[in-house]
Automatic annotation (TrEMBL):
Enzyme class label: hydrolase
Listed GO biological process terms: phosphatidylglycerol biosynthetic process; phospholipid catabolic process
InterPro entries associated with the record: PgpA, PgpA-like_sf, YutG/PgpA
Boundaries of every YutG/PgpA domain copy: 20-158
Record field: catalytic activity: a 1,2-diacyl-sn-glycero-3-phospho-(1'-sn-glycero-3'-phosphate) + H2O = a 1,2-diacyl-sn-glycero-3-phospho-(1'-sn-glycerol) + phosphate
Regions crossing the membrane: 48-71, 92-116, 136-161
Alphabetized GO MF terms: metal ion binding; phosphatidylglycerophosphatase activity
UniProt main location, coarse: membrane
Stored SUPFAM superfamilies: YutG-like
Pathway in which this enzyme or protein is active: Phospholipid metabolism; phosphatidylglycerol biosynthesis; phosphatidylglycerol from CDP-diacylglycerol: step 2/2
Membrane-protein topology: Multi-pass membrane protein
Species of provenance: Neisseria dentiae
Protein name: Phosphatidylglycerophosphatase A
Length: 162
């Protein structure tokens, strides 16, 4: 089953997989992680408009992280493929967490997106270590949460030096 390529119609018949694939953004033929991070931006924008920001958004991210363990585990099982690149719920939740703690301005959001994608792609220690040793839904979610933490450290240092 390693040659299996999920489609949008396959996702539509599996609601948890649709979430796991970031509403279909994880189906991108190239850079699914990058495309999969994008839904976090309009989601955060709407949440900001209705007043869910800062620590409230972070608390929501904790809930989404816990749900994400189940969503990603289920999606992995349905696919029959471990840590499939199109599973991007982890990117969405991690990016929402980063956006909870940066100013509500397009330049900060662009920087947050770029720095997060850099950490997620390069996977410096301990991200790569976690990625190799923690499997299943928790493993999928955990390495991106750590990348989000690294991103916040870098952005807060940049704000401080600025």
């Amino acid at each position: 089953m390693s040659d299996f390529k999920p489609t949008f119609s396959w996702l539509k018949s599996r609601p948890l997989c649709l979430l796991g694939f970031g509403f279909g953004s994880g189906l991108a033929p190239v850079a699914p992680g990058t495309f999969g991070t994008l839904p976090a931006l309009p989601m955060a924008f709407v949440l900001y408009l209705i007043g869910i920001t800062g620590w409230w958004l972070a608390a929501l991210c904790v809930i989404l992280f816990v749900w994400g363990i189940r969503i990603c585990s289920h999606t992995e099982r349905e696919l029959g493929i471990q840590d499939y690149g199109g599973i991007v719920w982890d990117e969405i939740v991690a990016m929402l967490l980063v956006l909870a703690f940066v100013p509500f301005h397009w330049t900060w959001w662009l920087a947050a997106f770029a720095v997060f994608r850099l950490f997620d792609a390069l996977k410096p220690w301990p991200i790569k270590w976690l990625d190799k040793r923690v499997h299943g839904g928790l493993g999928i979610m955990l390495d991106d949460a750590v990348a989000a933490g690294f991103t916040l450290v870098v952005l807060h240092i940049a704000a401080w030096v600025r």
